[in-house]
């Protein structure tokens, strides 16, 4: 009797242990809270691999065959799906699904495939939850466009660069790229100096949160010179109240874009010139869509521009462009990424051979660049160009370095020997010189080299201040502002280096030269 009781207890003990779901052990380890900047992509990849393993677990009950030979003829080996890696997890976090022709795990990525994926992203609205990963994926795909085919191992290594890296979202919050976790609130996003900004943070730019402070990264994901932008802190109370359920909704810039528009149709057409340059260039590149846009209601225009600019920034990292005439024999045969918009407003990217001499808006927010071709006759459909405030003439400048000349030609689309004069051609005629004039905007170019004139805190270095060169920049700005005062003509200074752009912006603002927009436009 006693022996039978012991056997019954042993059987119950064995049965109870076998009934415990093994998945509970894994769940225990998955409940860790996300650490800011943690490699969330790896965690996503591991989760998917585990779930696939459960789905593919073979049945414990073997199939019975009347004829043994049928068992051998119908035997199917276990499904072997490639294990998901960090790059695949990042693609999924950005909103790319299996049907979107994601690269097979383990395979390299070619420029043609990268362009195809960029095209998918451009056509797909981005949610708050997808935005950080979307910006990172766009960055990596543009790297492939610029440098050529990349192995899978290298792609996975490049994902690791985004550890502890965050971006500003259109809702004014900072969020980590890999985990997607919202970190803290910055402020309302507004269009300022050629970019969408919230405080010192810019939409489409990466920021490192290592060391407890956010610092801006350049196009090589290296920290730029300068002080910290903000401490890393937790806005848990605000975020829990304001973002509940918002991560699955389309995120746009309707509030910031709405400030471009007024209640009258005529004023809206004038505001068209003040919108982000990439949006203006895209709409103008499609006469069919431009005609449709002109007769949209105010609400429809705001919604259309909001969607367009949000998707462009999420994919290309910027909404600013520079207009130039394509030159050089290489461009006659080389295929370049061309961005366009259909009559229905759908964005598209294709690699085409562009002939020399075509006017194009160059869109570049880091590695790689896309161009937006300008179609002949577009201005005529808008009622013809406005009367220009000045005219082209000799620049009267000599002795510039090769890189300074190249950058000015990049910004102006004209020869370095040409300049745009307002109030008379030449200084002896009382004219004020600009480097260019395009789409109703007066342009000034400050090429590579200005960054070394400023300290890390953005103030002019002592020797630069003592030489009077810092004051010369202020005087030039005030002179240009005074020449077009009251005429409603915007002025843009394009600066090749980010540190120099921030420093010159601070210098001009501290000397009451706020009317000039300072835009960081990297040299090509």
Question: What this model shows, in words?
Answer:
It is a single chain. 37% of the residues lie in helices and 17% in strands. The protein has 19 helices and 21 strands. The protein folds into three domains: 157 residues, no CATH class; 127 residues, no CATH class; 132 residues, no CATH class. A hairpin with a 6-residue loop joins strand 13 and strand 14. Helix 6 runs antiparallel to helix 14 and helix 7 packs across helix 14. With 524 residues, it is of the alpha+beta class. The protein has a six-stranded antiparallel β-sheet with strand order 3-2-1-7-8-9. About 17% of the residues have low confidence. The radius of gyration is 28 Å and the shape is globular. Keywords: Signal. Pfam families: Tox-REase-5. It comes from Myxococcus stipitatus (strain DSM 14675 / JCM 12634 / Mx s8). InterPro entries: Tox-REase-5_dom. This is Tox-REase-5 domain-containing protein.
């Amino acid at each position: 009797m006693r022996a039978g009781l012991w056997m019954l207890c042993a059987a119950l003990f064995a049965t109870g242990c076998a009934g415990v779901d093994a998945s509970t052990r894994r769940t225990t380890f998955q409940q860790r809270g996300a650490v800011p900047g943690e490699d969330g992509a790896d965690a996503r990849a591991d989760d998917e691999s585990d779930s696939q393993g459960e789905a593919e677990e073979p049945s414990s009950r073997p199939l019975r065959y009347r004829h043994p030979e049928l068992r051998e003829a119908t035997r199917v080996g276990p499904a072997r799906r490639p294990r998901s890696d960090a790059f695949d997890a990042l693609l999924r976090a950005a909103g790319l699904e299996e049907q979107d022709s994601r690269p097979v795990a383990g395979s390299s990525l070619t420029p043609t495939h990268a362009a195809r994926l960029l095209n998918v992203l451009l056509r797909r609205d981005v949610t708050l939850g997808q935005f950080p990963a979307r910006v990172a994926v766009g960055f990596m795909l543009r790297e492939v466009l610029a440098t050529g085919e990349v192995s899978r191992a290298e792609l996975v290594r490049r994902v690791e660069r985004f550890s502890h890296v965050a971006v500003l979202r259109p809702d004014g919050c900072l969020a980590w790229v890999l985990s997607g976790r919202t970190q803290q609130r910055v402020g309302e996003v507004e269009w300022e100096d050629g970019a969408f900004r919230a405080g010192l943070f810019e939409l489409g730019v990466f920021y490192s949160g290592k060391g407890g402070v956010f610092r801006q990264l350049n196009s090589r994901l290296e920290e730029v010179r300068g002080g910290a932008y903000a401490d890393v802190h937790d806005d848990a109370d605000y975020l829990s109240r304001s973002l509940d359920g918002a991560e699955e909704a389309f995120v746009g810039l309707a509030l910031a874009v709405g400030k471009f528009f007024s209640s009258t149709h005529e004023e809206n057409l004038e505001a068209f010139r003040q919108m982000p340059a990439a949006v203006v260039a895209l709409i103008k590149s499609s006469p069919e869509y431009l005609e449709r846009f002109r007769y949209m209601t105010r609400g429809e225009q705001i919604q259309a521009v909001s969607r367009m600019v949000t998707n462009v920034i999420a994919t290309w990292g910027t909404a600013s462009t520079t207009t130039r005439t394509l030159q050089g024999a290489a461009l006659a045969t080389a295929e370049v990424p061309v961005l366009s918009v259909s009559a229905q407003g759908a964005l598209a990217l294709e690699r085409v051979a562009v002939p020399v001499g075509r006017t194009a808006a160059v869109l570049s927010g880091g590695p790689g660049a896309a161009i937006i071709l300008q179609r002949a006759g577009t201005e005529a459909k808008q009622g013809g160009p406005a009367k220009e405030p000045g005219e082209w003439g000799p620049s009267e400048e000599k002795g510039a370095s090769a890189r300074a000349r190249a950058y000015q030609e990049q910004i102006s689309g004209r020869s370095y020997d040409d300049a745009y004069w307002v109030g008379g051609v030449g200084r002896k005629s009382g004219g004020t010189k600009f480097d260019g004039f395009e789409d109703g905007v007066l342009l000034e170019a400050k090429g590579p080299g200005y960054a070394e004139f400023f300290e890390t805190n953005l103030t002019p270095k002592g020797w630069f201040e003592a030489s009077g060169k810092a004051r010369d920049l202020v005087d030039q700005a005030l002179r240009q502002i005074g020449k077009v005062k009251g005429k409603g003509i915007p002025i843009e200074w394009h600066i090749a280096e980010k540190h120099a752009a921030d420093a010159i912006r601070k210098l001009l603002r501290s000397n009451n030269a706020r009317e000039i927009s300072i835009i960081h436009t990297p040299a090509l």
